[in-house]
Structure formats: structure tokens, C-alpha cells
Amino acid sequence: MKIVESNKIEDVELPLQLYISFKKVFVLFEKYAHPEFEKHPFHTSAVKMVDLFKKHPELNDGFSDYSLLEKYKEQINLLLNPLFPEPLLLNEIKAASVPFSFTSFKFTDRFENILKNAGEDYELTVRNFEDDSMYVMACTFILGFVYGYNIDIKRPFYFDIPDQTTGTMKYYRAAFNGDFSDITPTENAPNLTQEDFKELLNNFENIDLWKEKFPPNSYIFKGFGLVNLFDVTSEEMLSSIKANLLAGGDDLIFKLQNNLRDFYAIKDLKLGYSIFDNVNHKVCEATIKKSNSIVLNKNSEIVCGTGYFCNGIIQKVFKNHETFIISDIDEYGSLTGKNDFYQSLYDSGIKSIILIPIKATNNGDLALLEIASPRAYELNSVNINKLKDIIPVFEAAVKRVSEERQNVLEATIQENYTSIHNSVKWRFYEAAEKYHFEHQTDENAALDEIVFNDVYPLFGQSDIKGSSTARNIAIKEDLTTQLTLAISVLENACETEKLPIYNELMFRVSTYLNDVKSGLSAGDEVSILEFLSREIYPVFSHIKEISSKHSKKVDTYMNRLDKNLNVVYEKRKEYEESVTLLNDKLARFIDNKQKEAQEMFPHYFERYKTDGVEYNMYIGQSITKNKTFDKLYLYNLRLWQLQVTYEMENVAYFELSNMKNDLRVASLILVHSNAMAIKFRMDEKQFDVDGAYNIRYEIIKKRIDKAHLKGSEERLTVPGKIAIVYSQEKDAIEYTKYIKYLQSKNQLGKLEYLELEDLQGVSGLKALRVEVIYQKDFKEKNTFSFDDLIKEIEA
Description:
It is built from 25 helices and 23 strands. The chain is an alpha+beta fold and 795 residues long.
């Protein structure tokens, strides 16, 4: 019997006196030794085992002298053999252990082989060992066992065990079974109350308080535990690769190479990375380091069409974007006439290689991930399948790097070439020409401020109502699906393996499921996903090995997860697709309609996508250089805005049949009759109102859609109605005319005259709210043009 004793035992302070005892095993043998089980197959052996306990009472009473493990190793082997069935000795990684001491004994054959391959100098220690945390964990163990106060602070313990055979590191997660344990308080143990328990819950980090409530050595532990290790090397490497990719840095390739060495158990595996330009068919030297590429080797660039690669690689990698595996470089050389690519690999000592193409940008630039080994057939078409979970991570990272680079370019463009609306571009050209002319004779020349005085504002929005609620419901439904699937996998596993850890995990998953059903709080989703990744997925890896039936069950779960986000993303995807569809439809519609309105009289227009669409318009003489402004153009634009708002309502209503989420919009128009000035803010690269008095208009814009009707809790903006907010009675009279006109066309219905509650810093606002009559056969192409509106009014 192998015995592994930690050299940290004497250094670790605990509230427990640890005694190894096999009393709970004795109770089981004692049961079958009773005469009533005389005909039971276990009876004879149970009688002998009871006699063994009587001859060696220390095994029952318990002992703290770990040297007795060696003295009684034969007896202990006999006692524990039923817990270590022979058919599983080469499969399970299991040992009997004393909790909190890291002393283990009675190992399975597979566990012993793992320790043997780790080398003589290796000591079996936990990676995330912390003295204070261990003390608190022992206290929570006591709280549950002695007082019935259960606190879940279980953290998975990990063992990093080297494999000298392969020269790599293996990673294992430990699951502890404490069913063979018993804890009793000594006379030095304070009696804990409910108040003590609450105080401890609020002071996790206060180790002095925990030691006050649980003095060192104030409780007696008798028994032993069973530790099961699960090989989580793949999961650890996947997590480490994600972390390294997020962290980036100059040594990224080196870190990822080490990750893949452990992942494949190939100590001298090589990792390379290169980028190929889709337009010029050559390596983009400016974006990579030559030392990162196995393919490049000594070449500064490669022209793909000059015979460097064989036709197979050109077709599969660069055209079809499929993975290419060469298991034997020498064989590849003989088939390709020892082309330049073979020669480059041969000179580098490469004997097998995997080429993984990843689309880096929308214009087709290709990132090539290169994984190589100095031995033939170590990388092949079979073990390429191990990369299925890793390739999406690299894809996401390559796209992220590409997007970041694109964002840098976009930022540079926006910093120096800010997009300017066509209606006001002339004024910027004037200012630029004036600046460059003056700068020739005056080095201190400054750019003019761009200000448009005496313009009339128009503001409108079509806001998706209840978007936050719909988003939360989608998150809740997706989490419910994912947790339910996880429970199903664990239930299925319980039918084959009666392991208590499955029941414990099912309980915790069910607890999360109940929490989700009762309502989500901030941070719940992250906590749940971290729990699944940290504690459930490693167990799933074990469950997959039990049988093909269980493997299919796990695959069913994994196939429901989004490959990039690693979560069930079905309802959220439906919601986001619905929001995107609606936003795109509304934005495209008003953009197209706005082009017509510009023909009437040039005006400034800016539109934003949020959960819906909102826009600003400014019209006045200062906006244009060539036309004369008349207020008639303002009134026409207001009528146009109301008509377009009605049509956007129909666009949104018509799209309900194309959306999986029932999303409705609520429309709002803000009327402001006084002319104002707008100024281009150089620091923000956008227009804003100018002058203290005009700030009130901006305040109203930001707050009005949340306003309630005066004396009630009813919101102003509701689906199916258009709200028109005003402060002067003449505006109400004007818009009432427009509404009556559209009522005559059977487009608008009942009209309400409303007063609004006072907003912070704003009072006295009123509103018209009119019902929208939706057209059953609404078509965007058949909507009124601006000229049609004018003709109808003038007729």
C-alpha cells in the first residue's frame, strides 16, 4: 500500500484534531456479520473483518500517528478493497486520504502510475493551497456536520502533475467524498448560535473571528475520505489559451506553444503563425514577426502562385479554407518533388505539421496557424480532432486582433476625417480653405468655429418598448435550458455510476435553476457560467468515457452551446436578431425617406441606432448657401416628420411576423418653435446646441420618453400611439391640423390632449397623443412621397 504524506502537515493550523479511523467501514462489516445475514454472500468475510477490528482496536478508535498506516497496511488494504474494486484500478484515479492534511494512502494502480511517472522529487500538493482558506473551509465543514449550517464555499482543488514519459504537465481536478468521516466537538469548542453563524457569513476574510468561534484543535475528526482525480488537461489548456490570448503580449506565441505542448503531450511541439494577404497573395510582412512562422522560415515573403506550396495546399488551405495535415514530411517530399515548402520544413527539422487557416478580415486576409512536431505521425488526421474546442478560440482571437487593428484605423480616420453631413459640408470647406489661406502668412492662424444660427430643431424617436425586460427574459430562458440539460446529463450518469458527487452537483445545479426561475440579479449569469465551466465540465469529460450512451448525452448538451460564447444562446440570439432586424428596417426606411426631404430644402440630419431609432434635424437659412429659407419649409418638414413617424410605426408592426420576439415601438416627436444655434464641438467631433438657454431643449430630449402623464403612473410613450410633446399652444394647433389631415386618410385615430408631470429642471410640458391605425397591406414602396403630401394639402 503506497503512502504519501505531505511535508506541510505540521505547518497547517486547523480547528480539527485529525484521527484516521475506519469505524464507518466497521459498522458496515458489523451489519453483515450479524446472524440474520448468515446466508448472505458477504457474511463469512464480514465476520473475519470484524475479528480483524477486534484484534486491532486502533483501526476503529482512530489514531493520529501516521506511522501506523505502514504498520497496519495489510489490514487497511483488506478493509478498503471493497471501495477499490479491482476492475477499476487501472481506470480510476482514486486514493484514500485524510482531509485538510494532504496525506493519502491506498491508491489505485492508475494513480500510482501517475505518481511514478511524475519523478522521485515530485510531491503531491494542491495548486491553490492557502492556509487561511483551508482553516475557514474546515470550519464550514464543522458547521455543516455538527450544527447543520450548510455553507457552500467549496472550491475545486487542482493537482499539477508532471509526466516524465512525455516531458509535459498534466492537470487534474479533485473531488472529495467525506462519507466515511465523523466530527465531534471537544470541551474547548464554543457553543455556536444562529447569531454567530450570521456574523461569520458577513466576515469571510476575518480569520481571527473564525479562530475565535472555532479555536485550533477544538474539534475531533475521525475517519478518512476518498479523493477522485479527473484529468482536466484539455479544459485547463483551453482556459489557459483563452487567458493568454486575452492578455496578449510579446511572448504570446511562446506561452501558447507551451499550452499546446501540454495539450498534445509533445514536449518539443512547435507553434507558428503567419498572415497571407488575399489581394496580393503574399505574406503581410508588416503584421507578423518572421520568427513566429514555421512556414516562412528564412523567407521574407512567399508568392503562393510560384510553386512554393503544392496544389493541394493552395486549393485546400488558401481557397477552401480547410485544415491541412501532413503526417509524414518525407512522404510529402517524395510526392511533391521536394518543393520549397518541403525543403523549408526539412531544414527546420519538422516531420509532421498541421496547417489551420483562419479568416482574419472581411476582405479575405488569411491567418495560418502552424502546429508542428519533429517526429512523423505525432500529428495526424486523428488527433487533429483534439483541436475542435481550441480552434474557435483562435478564430475569435484572430478576429479580435483584426477588429482591434480595424478599430485603430477607424479611430485614425474619425480623428482626422470625421464624417460630415452633406447639407453642412460646404461650411467646413469654407473654414478649411480660409485656414489654409491664412496659415500661409500667419503661423498662428486658427480654424473658424462652425456655428449655424437661427435654426429650428426637430427631434423624433421610435423606441423599442420593453427591450430590457425582453432581454432579461431571453437570458433567463437560455440559462434555464442550459441548467436543465446539465441536470439531464448528471441524472443519466447516476443510472450507471452511483457516485455521491453526481447528486451533490445535481443539487447545486438545481439550486441555480431555481434561482434563475425566481429572477435574475446582476452577476448571476457570470456566476452560473463560471460554476459550469469550473465544476461541471470536467465531470462531463469523465461521464463521456463511461459509455457511448453517456457520451451522446454530453454531446447533446455541448451541441446546444454557442461555439463562440460557450453558452446556450438561443433565445438571446432570437431577441438580438429581432432587435437588429427592427433597427435596420427603421434606420434604412428613414434614411431613404430623408433623401426625399432634402430635395425640398437642405437641412442637417443625424440618426442614431439604440434600442430603436432616434434622430435630430435642424433647418434654417444658415444651413444652406444657395436657397432662401421660409417658415413654410419648416411646416412642411414637420408634416413630413409626422407622416414618416406613422409609416415607421407600420414598418415596425409589419415586421412582427418576421421576428421571433414580439417587439413593439413607441414613437415620440418633440416640437420646439424657437430658433436656436448649433455649434460643431471640435473635441467631440459632433454638433451640439449652443447657448445656455438652448440647453433646456437637450434636457427635454434626454428625459421626455420616461415622462408620465400628470397625476398618474402612466407613461407618455406607449406602443400603438404617437406622442407629440410641446410647450406652446400654437404648436398644438399646428399639429392638430396635420393630425386631422392624416385622420382623413384613415391613418391616425383617436386624439388625446395631455399634461405631463414636471421633469427635473423642466415644467409645463403638454402633449398630443394620437392612435395609429395600422395598414394590413402596408408596403414601404407605396408610402407617400414628400411631393404627394404637398399636393394633397394644396388640393
